[in-house]
Amino acid sequence: MPTLNWIGKDAVVNHHEEVPFHLLRCDDALSVGEPGSGNLLVQGDNLTALKALLPYYAGKVKCIYIDPPYKTGNEGRSYNDNGNSPEIRAWLGAVVGKEAEDLSRHDKWLCMMYPRLVLLRELLSEDGSIWVSIDDNEIPHIRAVAGEIFRAANFVATVIRQMMYRD
Question: What's this model's pTM, rounded to 2 decimal places?
Protein backbone atom coordinates (compact mmCIF):
# COMPACT_ATOMS: atom_id res chain seq x y z
CA MET A 1 0.00 0.00 0.00
CA PRO A 2 1.44 3.43 -0.89
CA THR A 3 2.02 5.83 1.97
CA LEU A 4 2.46 9.58 2.11
CA ASN A 5 5.71 10.91 3.53
CA TRP A 6 6.41 14.44 4.72
CA ILE A 7 8.92 16.26 6.90
CA GLY A 8 8.14 15.44 10.53
CA LYS A 9 6.15 12.26 9.90
CA ASP A 10 8.57 10.03 11.79
CA ALA A 11 8.12 12.23 14.88
CA VAL A 12 4.31 12.06 14.90
CA VAL A 13 3.48 8.50 13.81
CA ASN A 14 3.54 7.26 17.42
CA HIS A 15 2.96 10.59 19.14
CA HIS A 16 -0.53 9.54 20.24
CA GLU A 17 1.15 7.08 22.62
CA GLU A 18 3.05 9.92 24.32
CA VAL A 19 -0.04 12.05 24.96
CA PRO A 20 -0.83 11.62 28.66
CA PHE A 21 -4.23 10.45 29.81
CA HIS A 22 -6.35 13.06 31.59
CA LEU A 23 -9.42 12.37 33.64
CA LEU A 24 -12.62 13.95 32.45
CA ARG A 25 -14.28 15.96 35.21
CA CYS A 26 -17.86 17.14 35.19
CA ASP A 27 -18.34 20.84 35.91
CA ASP A 28 -21.81 21.10 37.45
CA ALA A 29 -21.82 24.87 36.90
CA LEU A 30 -21.58 24.35 33.13
CA SER A 31 -23.75 21.24 32.91
CA VAL A 32 -27.22 21.20 31.40
CA GLY A 33 -29.76 18.46 30.89
CA GLU A 34 -30.45 15.39 32.95
CA PRO A 35 -27.49 13.83 34.79
CA GLY A 36 -26.54 10.50 33.27
CA SER A 37 -28.19 11.35 29.93
CA GLY A 38 -25.07 10.31 28.05
CA ASN A 39 -24.43 13.75 26.59
CA LEU A 40 -20.90 15.07 26.88
CA LEU A 41 -19.15 18.26 25.84
CA VAL A 42 -15.38 18.26 26.24
CA GLN A 43 -13.53 21.56 26.10
CA GLY A 44 -9.79 21.66 25.53
CA ASP A 45 -7.05 20.70 23.12
CA ASN A 46 -8.54 18.07 20.83
CA LEU A 47 -5.53 15.74 21.05
CA THR A 48 -5.74 15.72 24.85
CA ALA A 49 -9.53 15.40 24.72
CA LEU A 50 -9.41 12.42 22.34
CA LYS A 51 -6.94 10.65 24.61
CA ALA A 52 -9.18 11.37 27.63
CA LEU A 53 -12.15 9.77 25.82
CA LEU A 54 -10.33 6.50 25.06
CA PRO A 55 -10.89 4.76 28.42
CA TYR A 56 -14.64 5.36 28.09
CA TYR A 57 -15.31 5.05 24.37
CA ALA A 58 -12.53 3.04 22.69
CA GLY A 59 -14.11 0.94 19.95
CA LYS A 60 -17.62 2.22 20.72
CA VAL A 61 -18.14 5.30 18.54
CA LYS A 62 -20.41 4.64 15.54
CA CYS A 63 -20.01 7.94 13.67
CA ILE A 64 -17.28 10.58 13.71
CA TYR A 65 -17.48 13.86 11.82
CA ILE A 66 -14.46 16.14 11.68
CA ASP A 67 -13.95 19.48 10.00
CA PRO A 68 -10.20 20.12 10.25
CA PRO A 69 -8.60 23.38 9.14
CA TYR A 70 -8.30 23.50 5.35
CA LYS A 71 -4.88 25.17 5.59
CA THR A 72 -5.74 27.84 3.11
CA GLY A 73 -2.99 30.06 4.50
CA ASN A 74 -5.55 32.54 5.83
CA GLU A 75 -4.44 33.96 9.18
CA GLY A 76 -7.43 36.29 9.52
CA ARG A 77 -10.05 33.66 10.40
CA SER A 78 -11.34 32.79 13.86
CA TYR A 79 -8.32 30.45 13.96
CA ASN A 80 -4.94 30.67 12.25
CA ASP A 81 -5.29 28.53 9.13
CA ASN A 82 -1.66 28.96 8.12
CA GLY A 83 -0.24 26.78 10.88
CA ASN A 84 1.66 29.71 12.36
CA SER A 85 -0.21 30.18 15.62
CA PRO A 86 2.02 30.22 18.71
CA GLU A 87 0.29 27.06 19.98
CA ILE A 88 0.97 25.08 16.78
CA ARG A 89 4.56 26.34 16.56
CA ALA A 90 5.20 25.37 20.20
CA TRP A 91 3.61 21.92 19.70
CA LEU A 92 5.58 21.26 16.51
CA GLY A 93 8.81 22.39 18.17
CA ALA A 94 8.23 20.08 21.12
CA VAL A 95 7.12 17.05 19.08
CA VAL A 96 9.01 17.36 15.79
CA GLY A 97 12.01 19.26 17.14
CA LYS A 98 14.43 21.46 15.18
CA GLU A 99 13.15 20.00 11.91
CA ALA A 100 9.84 21.83 12.55
CA GLU A 101 11.44 25.14 11.56
CA ASP A 102 11.56 23.98 7.91
CA LEU A 103 8.01 22.65 7.63
CA SER A 104 5.64 23.91 4.96
CA ARG A 105 2.08 24.58 6.04
CA HIS A 106 1.16 21.23 4.44
CA ASP A 107 3.78 19.40 6.53
CA LYS A 108 2.50 21.17 9.65
CA TRP A 109 -1.08 20.15 8.87
CA LEU A 110 -0.12 16.52 8.28
CA CYS A 111 1.90 16.45 11.52
CA MET A 112 -1.12 17.82 13.38
CA MET A 113 -3.65 15.49 11.74
CA TYR A 114 -1.84 12.17 11.96
CA PRO A 115 -1.95 11.54 15.73
CA ARG A 116 -5.53 12.81 15.91
CA LEU A 117 -6.67 10.41 13.19
CA VAL A 118 -4.94 7.52 14.97
CA LEU A 119 -6.85 8.31 18.19
CA LEU A 120 -10.10 8.66 16.22
CA ARG A 121 -9.48 5.21 14.75
CA GLU A 122 -9.10 3.82 18.27
CA LEU A 123 -12.45 5.37 19.24
CA LEU A 124 -14.29 4.09 16.15
CA SER A 125 -16.35 0.91 16.43
CA GLU A 126 -15.85 -1.98 14.02
CA ASP A 127 -18.95 -0.93 12.05
CA GLY A 128 -18.46 2.82 12.55
CA SER A 129 -17.71 5.48 9.96
CA ILE A 130 -15.67 8.66 9.85
CA TRP A 131 -16.69 11.64 7.75
CA VAL A 132 -14.20 14.38 6.92
CA SER A 133 -15.12 17.79 5.56
CA ILE A 134 -12.18 19.14 3.55
CA ASP A 135 -11.58 21.28 0.48
CA ASP A 136 -10.31 20.19 -2.94
CA ASN A 137 -6.69 21.06 -2.13
CA GLU A 138 -6.43 18.60 0.75
CA ILE A 139 -8.39 15.63 -0.60
CA PRO A 140 -5.27 13.77 -1.83
CA HIS A 141 -3.45 14.32 1.48
CA ILE A 142 -6.32 13.27 3.74
CA ARG A 143 -7.13 10.28 1.51
CA ALA A 144 -3.52 9.05 1.68
CA VAL A 145 -3.16 9.53 5.44
CA ALA A 146 -6.63 8.13 6.21
CA GLY A 147 -5.92 5.17 3.94
CA GLU A 148 -2.78 4.43 5.91
CA ILE A 149 -4.52 4.73 9.29
CA PHE A 150 -7.97 3.28 8.52
CA ARG A 151 -6.83 1.03 5.64
CA ALA A 152 -7.54 2.12 2.09
CA ALA A 153 -9.89 -0.86 1.57
CA ASN A 154 -12.30 0.73 4.06
CA PHE A 155 -12.83 3.85 1.93
CA VAL A 156 -16.43 4.06 0.73
CA ALA A 157 -17.02 7.28 -1.19
CA THR A 158 -16.38 10.96 -1.70
CA VAL A 159 -19.39 13.24 -1.29
CA ILE A 160 -19.04 16.52 -3.17
CA ARG A 161 -20.99 19.67 -2.43
CA GLN A 162 -20.80 22.36 -5.09
CA MET A 163 -20.45 25.82 -3.60
CA MET A 164 -22.25 28.56 -5.48
CA TYR A 165 -20.92 32.06 -4.89
CA ARG A 166 -22.83 35.25 -5.58
CA ASP A 167 -21.34 38.69 -5.95
Answer: 0.84
